[in-house]
Records
---
Amino acid sequence: MIRVANLHKSFRGQKVLKGVNIEFARGKITTIVGTSGCGKTVLLKHLNALLLPDKGEIFIDSVDISKLRQKELYQIRAKFGVLFQGAALLDSMSVFENVGFPLREKTKMKESNIKKKVADRLEQVGLGEMGHKLPAELSGGMRKRAGLARALIMDPEIVLFDEPTTGLDPVLATSIHQLIARTQEAFGFTGIIVSHTIPQVFEISDYVAMLANGVVEELTPPEVFCSSQNPIVQQFIHGKTEGPIQVL
Amino acid sequence: MVSFLGRIGRFAIDQIAGMGRMFLFLVSAILLAFRRPAKLRLIVYHIKTIGVDSLSVVALSGFFTGMVMGFQGYYSLRKFNAESWLGSATALGLLRELGPVLSAFMVTGRTGSAMAAELGTMRATEQIDALYSMAINPIKYLVSPRIIAGLIAMPLLTAIFNVIGIFGSYVVGVGMLSVSSGSFFSGMENSVVFHDVYSGITKSVCFGLIITWICCYKGFHASPMATGVSQATTESVVLSFVLILVWDYFLTSIML
Ligand SMILES: Nc1ncnc2c1ncn2[C@@H]1O[C@H](COP(=O)(O)OP(=O)(O)O)[C@@H](O)[C@H]1O
Ligand SMILES: [Mg+2]
């Protein structure tokens, strides 16, 4: 279980998060929506301590990670798999090495087993033939899928997906959604997705949270979310520029 | 007036805090280098990139520096009828001073800037965050091997610079002007002592540390935008140049 309590964060005087409170249910998929630049990535990066809060607490299994020391933070981070917005594959390595990298660095697995596992996972995300290529030689969608394979390779308890389908065509987006749902069923991880691909992403979500003006406005199942009377949610779903969300 | 003083105070505090962060960065990179598992493969890889990248510019600049020293040395020494000392004058100048400093400049321009740009890009594209999130310490993985490689590669490049520079001076002095080959080398043999070589090597090791440290720090902490990367690259080159010259002064005054 992950709980965020009264999280504040600002960058050089710019207040991004102003008291975020949210709970992510174990073994479920929660989707976070919100306008671009409202701080979704910043919120995700607090969950595995890539950023530290100015104020507030983050509990992972009832441990407050904002009070941990460096060494303990590494143990917390090992529980997470992360798919970054731009996939963040290491560009000096081939796709195959990228996906196998956590195994090689963090486990004592035999080389032959690593090869087998990585080949399996690449097959699953439809990149069976692409292992030898460098990230720069792949399309955006392929990079995202490779990033997904890497995020899942350590069988993490919690997986963070930062805009897994942004910039992809609708067919590919759906296939990524299915991939997330399938692997979630298979491994039972807690999934947290940041996405703009609405309403398609709601099909695989158990809960939807709306981040606006630096706080979480709603946290409801997707059916309830769409019919919510909250003016902020209404404005967002219908893409209006007039309303309570402060657009730059 | 008060706000003016406040701004000066803030500036001073920021600068000092920045220096502290840079120093801590270096300390943790060095400590992590000794932590297992040792990244031997990465160290060798970076020695190779630093060495191969910079070899041609170091060789070329070494040759021309040597040739210039041949002409200038000949011109000055002839005033005292001491042309035969050309070999020793060149060798001392190169070994003690010009070799380490100029080859450090070349390596900064060629490899250091590339290092800052590479790490800056990794920061901007979240690759450094990705390493953290895979529970891999990016300082140990990215920075420590580069610093160790710099410590090893820099003296080697400096030695190559020196040898080629002496050859350049030989080509000019003996080949084009009227210095005899025998006196060129015997003068060198008589005047160069081990301490000259030693002080040059010490300098080049320090410069190797300065270059990799500054360039890695600036790249690692680049602000995550395209302009952040270019700014980090520029800053790393300028700061490396300045620190090389300042540190050169200190070492020279200590080891003279
Ligand atoms: N490391 C950082 N330094 C300075 N500002 C940042 C940093 N990270 C994020 N921000 C700022 O925080 C705001 C929210 O960013 P982000 O969380 O990336 O938005 P999004 O919701 O689109 O993911 C942006 O205005 C961005 O400029
Ligand atoms: Mg984002």
---
Amino acid sequence: MTEPALLSVENVSVNLPTPRGNLRAVDQVDLSVGAGRTLGIVGESGCGKTMLSRAILQLLPKKAMLSGRVMFDGEDLVRLDRERLRKLRGRSLAVVFQDPMTSLNPVLTIGTQLIETLQEHLELDGVAAKMRSIELLAAVGIPAPEQRLMQYPHQLSGGMRQRVAIAIALSCEPKLLIADEPTTALDVTIQAQILDLLAREQRRRHMAMIIITHDLGVVAGRTDEVAVMYAGRVVERAPTPDLFKRMRMPYTEALLAAIPKIDAKPHTPLPAISGRPPDPTRPLKGCSFSPRCKYAWAQCQIEKPPLADADSPGHQYACFRPLNTEAGASA
Amino acid sequence: MMQNALYPVSGDPLLRVENLVVEYPLGNKTVHAVSGVSLDIARGETLGLVGESGCGKSTLGRAVIQLRRPVSGRVLFDGQDLTAMQGDTLRRMRRRVQLIFQDPIASLNPRRRIGDIIAEPLVISGVKDPKKREQLVHEVLSAVGLDPQLVIGRLPHEFSGGQCQRICIARALVLNPEFIICDEPVSALDVSIRAQILNLLEEMKARYGLTLLFIAHDLAVVKAVSDRVAVMYLGRLCEVGPSEQLFAQPAHPYTALLIEAIPVPDPDVRPAESVAVGEPPSPIAPPSGCRFRTRCPRADQRCSDEMPELREVAPAQFAACHHPLIGAD
Ligand SMILES: Nc1ncnc2c1ncn2[C@@H]1O[C@H](COP(=O)(O)OP(=O)(O)OP(=O)(O)O)[C@@H](O)[C@H]1O
Ligand SMILES: Nc1ncnc2c1ncn2[C@@H]1O[C@H](COP(=O)(O)OP(=O)(O)O)[C@@H](O)[C@H]1O
Ligand code: SF4
Ligand code: SF4
Ligand SMILES: [Mg+2]
Ligand SMILES: [Mg+2]
């Protein structure tokens, strides 16, 4: 916390004009992550996780309006020119998407894609780039890497493709890796392998990492800090153990309760969150979670709860009736 | 070789699958998608079917209702062999069985209104009176928690994934079937909507007296709704047993691996490092002997020589393994 963060997102909002009116996809978000640390971003689909990561990477849709600052390694990415950004994205900032096909080119072999990336950003010659590619594929757990270099993405399974996408993302030794739902499309056994792989490479490289997911189970054992997003805002943020042990925000509690637990008895009704998040083109005046919150009282519909400090360091939440406190209803 | 497979369960099976084999031609090769699966589902029971992508779960589901004809084996529904049926006889039987798919939006015709989509099975099955059809459509829509007035005139794209899945469930229920095959009905949905749909399926099961085959790749999801669970790997069953028992004391190494791989939402539970080594081999050339042997920590020579058959390892729990974690002799 004392050394300056590698990445700090400061008061970032993203607005998108749509036929239904202005859509506020990201709403005044503050976040930071230091070298060697992992931040998890959790929330339901549509709550702005991907838009936030695209805002960090400066890869927003053209019509999007971004405000705030994205400080990365001493520079504000929002204000950088395109050429400098392109260099940064190749070298220091890398990303892995949910669908590996979005980052892989279907008509080029795995080898061509890896080797070209290495040649462009690390200025290696052909032979060195090929050697390095083989090393990288082996490091991400691809058997017989030399043969795989000659294959096309469609010839690999989903898990293999994600490994290749990770190899490409890691190829230039980035300082920050953003993984946007990297395992949502994969089976549980492959998911475990990919998450292990990311954790191992992150430790080895002392890289900063952001893992985006809708599953609190995925972040529990694998992050240092978690930010919970709802309707474009960060509604709770804490060091991972505190988030689970001292959660304050009813939404976090509801998200956790809705996960089927392996130790629950069969046919136990799940505590589902009723309804859907609000329409982002029709923001609510009060707390965005109030229509679905079982603790809501009158004030929640009228006023927006600010993101306030909890009593433990680094923990913040946006709620008028925080759980397990005097003001709040205990769960 | 597969003749004497055991039939785990039970008094009065509504569905009995016997030594089912389903294959797909691929160029001059063959995809061995389902290779000798036998199982029973009792009336009123939910059987969960889990396994990794490509292991043959959907193929098995589709072969049960003869959407894909099996190469061999029998499917007895209420005592009658569906594999021997053709034409009208088969169509009449199929009405008693319905399917719900993973991608709810893609399985609804984008150009038709919700009211017509749900009434369609009624039209096909000869319910002529429009008043009667309307009444039935209203009934099922209310049952799945949608307001018929607000829904019937609209098109699928106006609904979220969770709402589309409710609509698909309503469509499956409208003919008052006895048996529903749910093929990954919540895999494409978010945690919160997933819980809503799982609860809805449980309610509908009670209300309509259904028997379910519930397919998923997420063990925790399957456990939440199933009486018994069958674990499938590369076209074969590894293990079948009562849900709680199977999770408390898995006998097959693959079941144990699936359980370990589930991410636990508790920061004190450190994820086991690389529980799962490698990926499933290709179903075009499955390994000899036990199909799981290439990833199994307990594999030995016998596992590549001999294919293990399902056998009882604990009361009502069956595993196909030479070296099971429990009940070894
Ligand atoms: N029409 C087809 N032609 C050729 N091969 C097929 C066909 N349909 C399925 N397969 C193959 O059969 C095997 C079993 O597929 P199936 O769809 O039944 O798996 P699944 O367990 O349902 O997987 P998932 O979890 O991905 O839905 C796979 O190897 C698949 O590639
Ligand atoms: N290209 C786009 N144009 C307009 N709206 C978009 C676009 N992409 C996403 N949105 C909207 O922005 C909001 C946040 O989306 P997203 O960041 O993708 O959510 P998440 O990743 O959390 O599922 C949603 O309401 C979504 O519909
Ligand atoms: S502010 Fe009110 S409505 Fe919002 S989460 Fe807290 S208690 Fe619920
Ligand atoms: S039969 Fe052998 S390879 Fe197969 S699961 Fe059992 S121990 Fe493992
Ligand atoms: Mg997203
Ligand atoms: Mg399937």
